[in-house]
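Schema walk-through. Below, the input block comes first and the output block second. Nothing else is stored per chain. Lengths vary across the set, and this one has 339 residues.
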Amino acid sequence: MRTAIIWLVAAGIGAAELITATSGAVAQQQMLPGNGGGLPGSANIGTSRSVSPQAQSIAPLYPPPTSPSMPIPMFTPGALRDLPNSGAQGSLALSARFNKDAPITSGLVWRIFPSRPDPNGSFRPLREDRNPNPVMQLPVGDYIVHVSCGLATMAHPVHVTHKDTTREMFELAAGGIKLEGRVGDVKIASSAISFEIYPGSQFEPGTKAAIAQVVTDDVVVVPEGSYYIVSNYGDTNALVRSDIRVQTGKLTEVTVNHRAALIGLKLVSEHGGDAIANTNWSISTPGGDVIKEANGIVPRIVLAEGDYHVVARNDSHTFQGDFKVVSGTDREVEVLATR
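--- output ---
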């Protein structure tokens, strides 16, 4: 009975495109917790469907230092190690799937490692292949095969013989996450929104590192399990946190709904007048907490729905005003320069 290891690579950050070839039943929509630190917003899982994904690998991934069930010393990325000089050769045929109905047809990175370290105590790959179903000619002996698809990885030992082709099927317990952001019915441009994926739930104690940064319409492949999404529209306080569940062989599509608007700030000498240059801005809550500082003629800032106080400083003079942000209503806010 072979020992198999699947783990989540926390250091791999990026995204992979995923093309869905088949679709299954549409899951019931559900609202997920979305208020991050009291900030408005929500998210829902639109569909969770079976897929036969064609993915692109997002990062060169190597096995972690050790595993309780199969101890492996630190693998050293670098040039491929020379194959052992042996006369007897065998064939190794590799393939991978999420489950029996979801073969993985692209986006795989295969690496063959020796079963023992080199004289320096390092494990360097003997072979690397990005074909979905590679067949490799190897000297007879023991090896460790490592495969990655997105952030999902797996490794186990194999023995290559000279008699028959050794066939190995890797079953990755993983699925895909596809994200997009909206304000009402309007999709947020990918350049204006960012997503980070964290393991577990947002309600669990402790600080966690993001495992992936994803842009709109990209899909990242991750091991099956619970995750939470942190979505930031703009770079101020339009922040939404959402818990999701990823199932093996399923593409989970998540729409994050932000309650926010794009606000332009203008210091004018009269209503409807031209903006005054060389102005410094400070935006705060009614309670006095500063949430954004900016400068320029008409800085444009994404703000969560709510009430705000603005201070404009120009030529040693200070001008103030209050304004309200209504979700989905982008507009310019004028501060009157009265001396």
